[in-house]
Design brief:
The protein is α/β, with parallel strands linked by helices. The protein has helices spanning 8-19, 94-97, 99-106, 139-142, 169-181, 202-210, 221-229, 254-278, and strands spanning 28-32, 44-50, 68-74, 77-83, 111-120, 130-138, 186-193, 215-217, 233-243.
Length: 279
């Protein structure tokens, strides 16, 4: 299953199913991470589809993830919102995990705003903080466990896509402006993607800090890689849900990740709305 490919036909079938129910062409895709589902309530929804009804979409198995695709308007922009996402650790191939990104690309999005809940590695980070993602480290990807593994889908992009500016500097500048104007405390930093589902050991946390990672999570890098392969501009935002504990004091739980989301949702909503206004 985790070596399964996704064909152009599968993407097209899925995109056709979604596309025939849309009234406007979406310009911006929005992916809502763990505990951030409530952000979807900001959207004036026109069409709501369950992932389980969309051909080839991965279903979600984790608490805190709804699994709906919402087409609608936010700040006057036509948006396509993924309320919840599938993760590699659920047993899907990375090609399947990222199929919804392909579908959004086929439906015409130009930009992707991607959010996640992450563990803070940078000692300056507190739960509830916002981190604008400057860059990522794709640990499984570096060893070939990669969403673009297999035949290249040349209709979307090149065999060897550039990743030197994966997170769009201009979109990040807009997000920074909005956060400053709204007095939302934020950081900028490097997100490291691990396969999960176990949280990190103290030794792993030390390793990740040494290599320059500021926040750790179990998503985003594969989706961003696929987005960039297809030429989609990306704004990535991590909500710091917990601080990764180097001393092994205390525990990281899924519940605290969801709890921090309640603090993060209004902050992320302000940033996303502000960026959409400026697009
Ligand atoms: N580690 C990995 N993924 C996470 C964490 C964490 O501490 N918090 C939220 N997602």
């Amino acid at each position: 299953m985790n070596v399964e490919h996704v064909s152009l036909d599968m993407i097209a079938e899925s995109a056709q199913f979604v596309g025939q129910q849309l009234t406007t062409r979406p310009r911006v895709g929005l992916v809502l991470g763990s505990g951030l589902n409530a952000l979807a309530e900001a959207v004036e929804a026109e069409v709501i589809l369950y992932y389980s009804d969309i051909p080839h979409f991965p279903n979600l198995t984790v608490a805190g993830h709804v699994g709906q695709l919402i087409a609608g308007q936010l700040e006057g922009q036509a948006v396509l919102v993924m309320q919840g996402r599938a993760h590699y650790y659920e047993g899907y191939s990375l090609a399947r995990v990222t199929l919804p990104i392909r579908v959004m690309q086929m439906l015409g999005i130009e930009s992707l705003v991607i959010t996640n809940a992450a563990g803070g590695l940078n000692p300056a980070f507190q739960p509830g903080d916002v981190m604008l993602i400057r860059d990522h480290i794709n640990v499984p990807g570096m060893a070939g466990l990669h969403p673009l593994w297999g035949p290249n889908l040349a209709q979307f992009g090149p065999r060897f896509p550039d990743m030197s500016r994966a997170y769009d500097p201009e979109l990040r500048r807009l997000a920074r402006e909005v956060a400053i104007a709204a007095k939302i405390p934020f950081h900028e930093g490097v997100y490291v993607f691990l396969g999960g589902p176990s949280f990190e050991t103290p030794a792993e946390i030390r390793l990740l800090r040494i290599v320059g990672a500021d926040a750790v999570g179990m998503s985003t890098a594969p989706e961003v890689t696929v987005a960039r392969h297809g030429g989609t501009r990306v704004l990535g935002i991590s909500g710091i849900a917990n601080v990764a504990l180097s001393e092994g004091v205390g525990e990281t739980t899924h519940e605290e990740v969801l709890e921090a989301g309640r603090l993060l949702v209004p902050r992320l909503e302000t940033i996303v709305r502000g960026v959409l206004q400026k697009l």
